[in-house]
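Agenda item 2: protoporphyrin IX containing FE complex prediction
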Amino acid sequence: MDRIQSDIAKAKGLGSAHHGAEHWMAQRLTALANIPLIIWFIYSVMHLRGVNQSEFVLWLAEPVNAVLTILLILNISYHAVLGSQVIVEDYISCKVLRMAKLIGQKLFFIAFSVACIFSVLTIAL
Amino acid sequence: MLVMTTDSKRPLSPHLQVYRLPMTALMSISHRASGAVLVVGTVMAGLWLITAAFAPAYFDMIMALANTPIGTIVMFGFSFALYYHMCNGIRHMFWDLGFLFKLKNAAIANWVVLLSAAALTSMTWWCACAWQG
Ligand code: HEM
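Presented output:
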């Protein structure tokens, strides 16, 4: 955190939210990493149009495809958690509801990405 | 008592019901909207992946649904939302580096983002159709 913050920001303290720089930076880093991953993903889906399950399994069993798919899941999930967090913080003012939504989202995306990664491994290994 | 008339010289707060948003503002809220749409798309794609491993019959059903006219329209919508969000996200990162803030440049960037997203979407579908034969 102190590496990202400017000296003046450090001197002034963290503002009313008490956090932010890390979140902001992580949103950008995942955004950057998303660009090549998403281009690869769209390209793959174009080729996968109309495949049946066994053809899809053959494709996903390729190590390159399995690894890139896992990276995609991790990166999108992280980016999506950060993104939906800001949206919830902006629009839900009731503290209890907001907390419930924020925690629920995080737990959901953890469960979601683990289930997706487990599926990739089941097919690829 | 304060009377607000339309020819008042006082600045108006941009109340959404009475204020026509400038294009930069519409593009800004569209980044958020497309992000929310993409979260839904991500969950759908994830379910598709999970069925491939654990429910092959459902996988084939999803593939069949995706190939219906409505499925194709939905996929087209997701592809545009994704390209829009990606192009506008790149513009966000230009902002973060301190570029594209002048009104004129912001206005040009609006169109660069929109046209790039449209071009990428068209290109994708054109290729997808050509490859399928
Ligand atoms: C393709 C590459 C992508 C790029 C370059 C990108 C870029 C960005 C950037 C720079 C932001 C921050 C915007 C801000 O600070 O207001 C952002 C926000 C967001 N992104 Fe992405 N993104 C990408 C893909 C995705 C995907 C696949 C999803 C779906 C899960 C997603 C969901 C979101 C959400 C929900 C937000 C929060 C929107 C907001 O704060 O208003 N993004 N994205």
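Discussion summary: The interface with chain B takes residues 28, 31-32, 34-35, 38, 42, 46-47, 49-54, 56-57, 60, 69, 73, 76-77, 80, 83-84, 87, 112, 115-116, 118-120, 122-123 of chain A (CB under 8 Å).
Owner for follow-up: CH.
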